[in-house]
Amino acid sequence: MRIHLRAVPIASLGLLLLVVGLGVQAQDCEVNMEWVGVPPDEYDRRFASISEPDGRPLGFNRSVIPYVTEGIPNPCIRVTGTEDRRVEVMAESTPVGSTICTYRQGGQLECNAAGIYFCDQATANEIKYEFLCEGTSCEQTDVPFFFRFTISPPASEMDPELWCDNRDTGEYPRTLSGPLPPGVTMAPNPQTTRSRGSSHNYAAKSLLGICIVAITTFAINY
Ligand SMILES: *[C@@H]1O[C@H](CO)[C@@H](O)[C@H](O)[C@H]1NC(C)=O
């Protein structure tokens, strides 16, 4: 009983150290890139910018999460000038679908296969974001990804909380659409739905027809 009572505070301390340790580790990656932003009114909205090595589609930049992490560090990007600001973090793998992750300032790992999005109050004048990849989609190759950090205007100009609420959370490079091949015109979406619907109708009608024939045959024979 005595041992148990003594073990409790020791275990708590151990747990605390572990949590603190993980938190520190999360933000303590070795910086290998400095974030250079693009002013929003200068965003490149061309589809072609996605495949240009120096392209900045919608202000995003690109990097690669290495498949073999031994010896090759994960991207660790430093964002500066964040004091008293909100920071919006967006990232998506290319092609979309690999579960990429980054640590939030509190040490919480944020992962998303459809695209990372969060908007946080900065707790310091610089924040490091390490990007890593999780899951089977990352086990065989390097994972290229796009990322973007946007820092809110000073609080004197705009309520930081409102700023986060008013952001366009769906503005990823994948939303830029490509040019159509020559001679092809884009079919409006409703038509695609309708044609799919009509093929269902066709199947339903065929089934109904078969049933009627079967019932009729049955009735005639008996
Ligand atoms: C992003 O891309 C530009 C090229 O437009 C490059 O000069 C810059 O260093 C890149 N890195 C970061 C982390 O912004």
Describe the structure.
The chain is α+β, with helices and mostly antiparallel strands and 222 residues long. Helices cover 29% and strands 24% of the residues. It has 3 helices and 9 strands. The protein has helices at residues 2-27, 160-165, 189-221, and strands spanning 33-34, 61-65, 76-80, 86-93, 99-103, 109-112, 116-121, 126-134, 143-151. The structure holds 2-acetamido-2-deoxy-beta-D-glucopyranose. Residues 33-36, 54, 56, 61, 77 line the site of 2-acetamido-2-deoxy-beta-D-glucopyranose (NAG). The site of 2-acetamido-2-deoxy-beta-D-glucopyranose has 8 residues, from β1.
Structural class per helix/strand content? alpha+beta
Spatial separation of the terminal alpha carbons? 85 Å
Radius of gyration: 26 Å
Q: Return the average pLDDT rounded to an integer.
A: 80
Number of helices: 3
Helix content: 25-40%
Low-confidence stretches: 19-25, 190-202
Topology as a string of helices (H) and strands (E):
HEEEEEEEEEHH
Spatial order of the strands forming the largest sheet: 1-3-8-5-6
In percent terms, what proportion of residues is strand? 15-25%
Ligands bound to this protein structure: 2-acetamido-2-deoxy-beta-D-glucopyranose
Form type:
extended
Largest sheet: 5 strands, mixed
